[in-house]
């Protein structure tokens, strides 16, 4: 016998009860408790049972719902499809899927694409409602079509202003307001017009579609030449070369949601490519040189990458309070390699990766000894690269400084070491 599904999770649109199915209406009629936001509960003035407003501490409300559901039927009402950026996952996690029946409506995203007349099976979906917009522009880089839940802080006009600041203007935008309700409005903008628009209602979905039909998804691995970054002068040779960057980033094992530390960030080349590989993650670029800090920030702006936080300070002291990393790159230590490695290996997530670039014999020796003190045997690669350079009508090879790349994995629960 299947368990009693005492909780019915009902999706509802801005037209209220008008579009509810008979099954959803019957569920409300049989319920002793109705739960939802104030706006949703106002659609049911005739309901005679207990009403609970979903606000503030959702966990405490769900605890109360679980208690009430032991003796009577409960309906939880939420916008559109409750399992699409909604409260549905929290309800099911707290109550158990076997006790919850879900009756969804079309989500506001689905309505938005329908009203704009756009196919939506190739779109990416982002929610900035009640969330930080950090990384929004980085995520745009690999998408041709994006649908966004906004809020007062991250309104369509504010997002458009950020896009203009970083050169992301080759988009068409649709702002879809109060979908399904009597005040529904759908408008089309270019990015400049959207940034200037001041009369957008709070209940909206923003659709962005690239205006250039020839646009293609960028390469998965950035592999940017160092000439594409501003650099400190006359320290041009100190930037991490792209061949070294490629191997170092691969050794770091970066995932789309990784937290990365780039210690001794310099111009920020490693930070930027790490950020592109982790569009849903976050990169901390730690740099002590004031000129380097400003150049790093300039490069972030030039490459329209917004999931990198520049930390001005000297490691290891500057690492205090940063989110625990999944991957760490050390490109410069200012003579504190052993101390930095100690802090990094303590803070690194189990299974996380540390990669060190060492040029001098002193740094090579200190890195190796520091890792061995912790019982870790690193993978070490000696990289010697020569590039073809013009010489009159010919090409000749010009060698770059050899570099040693140390890579080590922090043991997980199994104690395995890479």
TrEMBL record:
Keyword check for rRNA processing? no
PROSITE patterns named in the record: RRNA_A_DIMETH
GO molecular function per UniProt: methyltransferase activity
Pathway listed for it is: Cofactor biosynthesis; adenosylcobalamin biosynthesis
What residues does the Methyltransferase domain cover?
A: 257-363
Task: Please state what class of enzyme this protein is.
Answer: transferase
Q: Where is the Tetrapyrrole methylase domain?
A: 7-194
InterPro entries reported in the protein's UniProt record: 4pyrrol_Mease, 4pyrrol_Methylase_sf, 4pyrrole_Mease_sub1, 4pyrrole_Mease_sub2, CbiE, Cbl_synth_CobL, Cbl_synth_MTase_CbiT, Cobalamin_biosynth_MTase
Tell me, what's a Pfam family for it? Methyltransf_31
Q: Which GO terms describe its biological process?
A: methylation
UniProt EC number: 2.1.1.196, 2.1.1.289
UniProt KW keywords: Cobalamin biosynthesis, Methyltransferase, S-adenosyl-L-methionine, Transferase
**Protein name (Swiss-Prot/TrEMBL):** Cobalt-precorrin-7 C(5)-methyltransferase / Cobalt-precorrin-6B C(15)-methyltransferase (Decarboxylating)
Q: Which gene encodes it?
A: cbiET
